[in-house]
Amino acid sequence: MVADLLFEAAGLMLIGMVSVFTFLFLLVVLLQLMSKTIQRYFPVKQTEKSSHVSTTAAGGVSPTIIAAISAAVHQYRQKQ
Known about the structure:
Layout: H1 2-41, H2 63-79
Family: Belongs to the OadG family.
Enzyme class: translocase
Subcellular location: Cell membrane
C-alpha cells in the first residue's frame, strides 16, 4: 500500500519536473529566436559618442561638472 503510493508520488514528481524543464527549455529557445529575429530585422543604430566630455585634460574634470558641484555645495551651505 505504502509502496504503491510512493511509486505514484515518484511518477507525479517525474511528470511535473519533466513538464517544468520542457517549458523552461522552450521558453529559453523561443526568447533567443525572438531576440535574433528582432536584431536581424530591426538593428540597433550606433550613435556617435559625444566628444565634448573627452576633450578635457587627461585625468581632469570637465569645467561644467566643477561648476555644477560648486553650485550644489554653495546651495547646501546656504540652507544650513
